[in-house]
Amino acid sequence: MCTVNMAGRKWLEELKSWQRGKMPCMLMACFTVTMALFANPVVGDSVQTVADSNWTVILQGQWMLVFYAPWCPACQQIKADWEEFGKRSEALGISVGKVDVTQQPGLSGRFLVTTLPTIFHANDGSFRRYLSSRAVEDFQSYVVDKKWEAVEPVPEWKSPSSFVMTMMSGLFRLSVWIRQIHSYLTETLGIPVWGSYLIFALVTLVTGLLLGLILVLIADCICPSRPRRRDRKSEVEVKEDGSEGDIEDTLTEERQLSDAENESAKLSGEEESTGEEVLPSEGEAGAADMQMPEGASESMVRKRKPQGAEPNET
């Protein structure tokens, strides 16, 4: 028992001596590493990654934003200069960001990026496209000397926060989503390319029909058709009945006039056949004498005399 106790005490004394000598060295090493990390920050912290979820941060303050792709050779050439510019951003009072278009297709559509790399300068929501040299010194002078003030800003309708660019962002995301589905159908499921296109065509047709039906229902709810009232219908019927009665009265009058004309024509024919002449009344005769000249009146008297039968002389 005494031997065991002596061995244990010896081991504890060696452990205590090792701790006294090694612990300060370990603490010093940890402190040195921590100071080195704070003195030389990681480059990724100086260049902020902008995505669809946090892109609105660039609407405030001054920003320099680059759009790149990992497979783009020109983007790889300016990578070192952009990271160095990001290190100087705090001293310049500017924020530096980057957008990977392969991971953020919505932002590439919102900014209407068609070439890579594309650099934008933003100042409180006003965007300008950077078209100068792509060296770190040029980036710095562009900000310090305020060369961006001489550049025309992006029009209001092309601003990333506008409604048009928001719709464009949605279209870009939709195109990427459709491409991913097409790849899944053709590569994973083994469906032919024409089969994938046929599926997309059917889905598009069905979606259009459903949207049209929904729009019709919404239009009926907003502007419903008004039912016809019975009062208006009765009024219309009364008007129609009155118009038919007027037409019958008019036809009756026309028939009476035609019958009177026919009777007068028959009477005149009978008078001509018998050789009798209807003598005018006194008023009519006086008026005729006043209008006709004297010679005409005498000739009319002469014409009237032979019409009567003269008595035979005995």
UniProtKB/TrEMBL annotation:
<keyword id="KW-1133">Transmembrane helix</keyword>
<feature type="transmembrane region" description="Helical">
    <location>
        <begin position="197"/>
        <end position="223"/>
    </location>
</feature>
<dbReference type="InterPro" id="IPR017937">
    <property type="entry name" value="Thioredoxin_CS"/>
</dbReference>
<feature type="domain" description="Thioredoxin">
    <location>
        <begin position="36"/>
        <end position="149"/>
    </location>
</feature>
<dbReference type="InterPro" id="IPR013766">
    <property type="entry name" value="Thioredoxin_domain"/>
</dbReference>
<keyword id="KW-0676">Redox-active center</keyword>
<feature type="compositionally biased region" description="Basic and acidic residues">
    <location>
        <begin position="232"/>
        <end position="242"/>
    </location>
</feature>
<feature type="region of interest" description="Disordered">
    <location>
        <begin position="229"/>
        <end position="314"/>
    </location>
</feature>
<dbReference type="InterPro" id="IPR052454">
    <property type="entry name" value="TMX_domain-containing"/>
</dbReference>
<keyword id="KW-0249">Electron transport</keyword>
<dbReference type="InterPro" id="IPR036249">
    <property type="entry name" value="Thioredoxin-like_sf"/>
</dbReference>
<keyword id="KW-0256">Endoplasmic reticulum</keyword>
<keyword id="KW-0472">Membrane</keyword>
<keyword id="KW-1015">Disulfide bond</keyword>
<dbReference type="GO" id="GO:0015036">
    <property type="term" value="F:disulfide oxidoreductase activity"/>
</dbReference>
<keyword id="KW-0597">Phosphoprotein</keyword>
<dbReference type="Pfam" id="PF00085">
    <property type="entry name" value="Thioredoxin"/>
</dbReference>
<keyword id="KW-0732">Signal</keyword>
<protein>
    <submittedName>
        <fullName>Thioredoxin-related transmembrane protein 4</fullName>
    </submittedName>
</protein>
<keyword id="KW-0812">Transmembrane</keyword>
<keyword id="KW-0813">Transport</keyword>
<dbReference type="GO" id="GO:0005789">
    <property type="term" value="C:endoplasmic reticulum membrane"/>
</dbReference>
